[in-house]
Amino acid sequence: MKNILVTGGAGFIGSNFINHILSNRDDVFIVNLDKLTYAGNLENLADSEKSKNYTFVKGDITNNELVDYIFRKYEIKHVINFAAESHVDRSILGAQVFYETNVVGTCVLLEAAKRFEVEKFLQISTDEVYGSLGETGLFTEQTPLSPNSPYSSSKAAADMAAFSFHHTYGLPVVMTRCSNNYGQFQFPEKLIPLMIINALNDKKLPIYGDGLNVRDWIYVIDHNKAAELVWEKGTPGEVYNIGASQEMKNIEIVKLIIDKLGKSEELIQFVKDRPGHDRRYAIDSSKIENELGWKPEYKFEEAISDTIDWYLTNENWWKRIISGEYQTYYKTLYGNR
Ligand code: NAD
Ligand code: TYD
Questions:
Q1: Is residue 196 part of a domain?
Q2: What total of structural domains would you count in the chain?
Q3: Buried b (16+ CB within 10 A) or exposed e, 143-174
Q4: Per-residue pLDDT tens digits for 173-196
Q5: What mean pLDDT, rounded, does the chain reach?
């Protein structure tokens, strides 16, 4: 049995990861440590909660005593760190919690992993640490770090801390840097679920700037299969970029959603740009493909349709979310834009 501490497992990618692992293998025991911030939702884990190989602890990764207790009690030998403040726009509204969770929290986990001599520490990072691309070129693992937002700078700082623990103490750290994810359970502050839900409610679709910024989209299950592979087979000290070579302009994504939902393009509203908005992200994932044999399995056309269908059939999930704190957030970010 492999005893894994998965952090942030009630969020979008972490919950999909836990559901994927527990429905496909029985050689792991997962302790999910999650603070249940606005982004954490135990409803995402309804299936996993039935598993005897799963337990949940509500708590903060910055809490040294709690983290120490979990490592001791569950004899943790593997860490997969998804926990983070993850939204760029929120980091622009208030940066401090991003450094607390993403940097200090990661350091608390690294210290405990060192003390308890873990066999693998997977740090889930992001392609946003590389900064922004021009019209051509791809991010490789050699691209220098050049983060632009408080979010991406906090992730880059965590990356540096993680590799310093590898270099200094020999902690077996591996890292993934993935492009933009989409899929079920994504919180509707991110582009795709926000646009789906607004369109369903016949609300304006706020596109920042000229709508020509480019993101490289990957289905969350493809990301999670890659993360699983890097956790088990990745070489300590190495970074693996993950992407599905699916570059899209924001306006194209929004028009595709409008089209699939049979709505009018009159819903589109160009609004004031995001400060410091990165122009283009695009990933070269040849390293993980050549060294670990990973390949994306899902076609964008099908997976985005499945995602839209999921939001159509799971109204209860997102209606509960948008009736809460979300209202205040939405007014603050979009009210005077
Ligand atoms: P999310 O915001 O949906 O979920 C984050 C989870 O972390 C939530 O469940 C939240 O409750 C938990 N959390 C936050 N602060 C915590 C703390 N101090 N202690 C314990 N738990 C805490 O994020 P996501 O989109 O699922 O992203 C997960 C990870 O993947 C992040 O590290 C993010 O940087 C990275 N990533 C995301 C994307 C993307 O497209 N969403 C792409 C690449 C990398
Ligand atoms: P987002 O989902 O926030 O991901 P990230 O900024 O981390 O890549 O945004 C994706 C793109 O969509 C980004 O270029 C910003 C843009 N965007 C909008 O135009 N309008 C919106 O309301 C949101 C949330 C994002």
A1: yes
A2: 2
A3: bebebbbbbbbbbbbbbebbbebbeeeebbbb
A4: 999 999 999 999 999 999 999 999
A5: 98
State in Å: Cα 181 to ligand 2 middle.
12
Residues 120 and 28 in one domain: yes
Q: Measured on CA atoms in the order 202, 204, 205, 210, is the torsion positive or negative?
A: positive
- Of all ligands present, the nearest one to the C-alpha of 10 is 1
Structure tokens that stand for 263 in this block: 């709505």
334: how many CB neighbours lie within 10 A of its CB?
A: 17
Counting ligand 1 atoms within 8 A of each CB, the residue from 43, 63, 82, 108 with the most, and so the one to mutate, is 82
Distance CA(153)–CA(139), nearest Å, equals 16
Amino acid (1-letter code) at residue 206: P
CA atoms within 13 A on the CB side of 158: 37
Domain assignment present for 31: yes
CA nearest to 17, candidates 228, 331, 251, 318 = 228
Residue 194 lies in domain: 187-215+246-281+300-323
Q: Is residue 289 part of a domain?
A: no
pLDDT surpassing 90 at residue 289? yes
Q: Which atom of ligand 2 is nearest to the CA of 277?
A: 14
Percent of the chain with pLDDT over 90: 99
For residue 316, with 0-12 CB atoms within 10 Å meaning exposed, 13-18 middle and 19 or more buried, which class applies?
exposed
Q: Is 193 in the pocket of ligand 1 (CB under 6 A)?
A: no
The predicted model gives 58-70 an average pLDDT of 98
**Which atom of ligand 1 sits closest to the CA of residue 155?**
34
Q: Residue 252 C-alpha to ligand 1 middle, in angstroms?
A: 26
Residues in the chain: 337
Residue 287: inside a domain, yes or no? no
Q: How many CB atoms lie within 10 A of CB 261?
A: 15
In this structure, the answer to whether residues 233 and 304 fall within a common structural domain is no
